[in-house]
Specification:
Blueprint: H1 2-14, H2 17-24, H3 27-47, H4 59-70, H5 80-83, H6 86-101, H7 103-112, H8 119-129, H9 137-167, H10 169-184, H11 204-219, H12 221-236, H13 250-274, H14 286-299, H15 315-327, H16 340-354, E1 362-363, E2 366-367, H17 370-397, H18 403-414, H19 429-444, H20 446-453
Antiparallel strand pairs: 1-2
Helix pairs in contact: 3-4, 3-6, 3-20, 4-19, 6-10, 7-8, 7-9, 9-10, 9-11, 10-11, 11-14, 13-14, 13-15, 15-18, 16-17, 17-18, 17-19, 18-19
């Protein structure tokens, strides 16, 4: 008996920390705790005198900034460029990087230095990094870091050409690195000033560099891995690059098509509604006007930068922007929102439902599984419901602020976009708490937050029920 007990104790000791944590908590709860820990550490570091220029900001402001940085949103109750010192901005860079990649992914990299993962550990890190299966989790996580470094260094190099000429060598290089990290992680913070990138509305290098980083980060690592592997495989066979499109998976094909459609349609809508608006793009020259329309369309993909003042945009466009922000980027990347694939599934389902000859939802000549369709409807319901409750709370805490402005702020927070009509700094403590909660839910995803608190129940798949006779519509 004693020998058996000793063996059990030894077996428990041999389990890794990840296995022990998974035995106590589910992956969703561990991910939530990891984000909370990073946020608290970040808020404390930002509260240090060395992190501030002049008088330190209040703790609630620093906490708000830390939540926004880790949740890669970009909303802020203070102007980061003037409030925080270089040390404080370095803290912000680390928070954005950890928030964009994910704290559990960072932990996984440190974990991989020592040993390979067990099955339980693969489950934990696959869930944290957005991988849908356990195949080659270690390789997947390594490639996330490699691609992140490559994209951000390329953005840094490109931005340096302009920034060093404007701000000098040291300050220009610092600003370039900050902007590159902020753009690729879709965080939206900038080290320049209170008007975001409005000063550079007509600068082609800065605009194209930032937009490219935003799109690259928002497409998702899975898409980039597939494109790279496909390019290498096809290039070795001497096949033309243009023929590769048909070999993409349904996921990557859907992501690329939906992303392109959203960017083009967003560009057209910004131009149509703002062409005669003197407060935004009416007085801009041809190239600057084109860049302004394209940049605002791209930044609505959860980036948070702006080259025009959103507070001066026409009200119809602000309402349309809420829809684009809620859609967000793509799965497995640094962007937030409901995701492009979710809206693509819902759209195809709605279209095919209206056509009796197509009873099932179909994408790229492939049937969408009922479980995926149910998943998409749940995500839509949760986002709309949570946003509605938040806006209702904001109307109580901010009675003097317009309803559209509150809706815009709430959607920007839960979709982790970060653009604002300019009301963030004037929010009450209650309003700031609501926005922080929305940013946190938006970064983790409503389903992950639900899973963190949900207790597993016994399966009842063997039970069948008679059809309900309910009239719809």
């Amino acid at each position: 008996m004693k020998t058996q007990e000793l063996q059990e104790v030894m077996a428990r000791k041999k389990k890794s920390w990840a296995q022990r944590l998974l035995k106590t908590y589910n992956p969703a709860k561990l991910l939530m705790y990891a984000f909370l820990i990073v946020i608290m550490i970040g808020s404390i570091l930002l509260s240090l005198p060395v992190s501030n220029q002049g008088k330190p900001a209040s703790y609630i402001d620093n906490l708000f900034t830390a939540v926004s940085a880790v949740c890669v949103t970009g909303l802020s109750t203070v102007t980061a460029a003037s409030q925080y010192s270089h040390f404080g901005k370095v803290v912000l860079m680390f928070l954005m990087e950890i928030g964009g990649i994910g704290p559990m992914t960072i932990i996984a990299i440190l974990f991989l230095r020592n040993k390979k993962m067990a099955t339980d550990e693969r489950k934990l890190f696959a869930a944290a990094s957005g991988k849908s299966n356990l195949y080659k989790v270690e390789d997947y996580i390594r490639r996330i870091i490699i691609y992140t470094v490559i994209f951000e260094l390329c953005g840094f190099a490109l931005l340096s050409f302009r920034m060093t000429g404007i701000y000098g060598l040291s300050e220009g290089l610092f600003n370039s690195l900050f902007l590159s990290i902020s753009a690729f992680t879709n965080a939206g913070f900038d080290p320049i000033g209170s008007e975001s990138l409005c000063t550079y509305v007509g600068d082609p290098i800065i605009n194209m560099a930032i937009m490219t980083l935003i799109v690259f980060g928002g497409l998702g690592f899975m898409v980039w891995f597939e494109l790279k592997d496909l390019f290498v495989a096809r290039f070795k066979r001497g096949t033309a690059l243009l023929k590769k499109r048909k070999w993409l998976s349904e996921h990557s094909s859907t992501v690329l098509k939906t992303t392109l459609w959203l960017i083009v349609s967003g560009f057209v809508l910004v131009y149509l509604f703002e062409a005669e608006n003197a407060g935004t793009i009416m007085n801009l020259e041809g190239d600057s006007k084109f860049l302004a329309c394209l940049f605002q369309s791209v930044t609505l993909r959860t980036a948070g930068f702006a080259t025009i003042s959103f507070g001066r945009c026409t009200r119809p466009l602000l309402l349309i922007m809420c829809v684009y922000m809620l859609i967000g980027g793509s799965p497995g990347g640094t962007a937030g929102g409901m995701k492009t694939t979710t809206i693509a599934v819902l759209y195809n389902s709605a279209i095919n439902t209206l056509d009796d000859s197509k009873p099932d939802a179909v994408i790229s000549n492939r049937r969408i599984a009922p479980s995926l369709l149910k998943h998409a409807y749940v995500i839509l319901t949760l986002y709309v419901s949570i946003t509605f409750l938040a806006v209702m709370g904001l109307t109580i805490s901010e009675p003097s602020t317009g309803l559209l402005e509150l809706i815009f702020e709430a959607v920007s927070a839960i979709a982790t976009v970060g653009v604002s009509t300019g009301i963030t700094s004037s929010l009450s403590v209650g309003g700031r708490i609501i926005i922080m909660i929305l940013m946190f839910i938006g970064r983790l995803g409503p389903l992950s937050v639900y899973a963190a608190f949900h207790k597993e129940r016994k399966l009842t798949n063997h039970i069948t029920y008679p059809d309900a006779n309910i009239i719809i519509g």
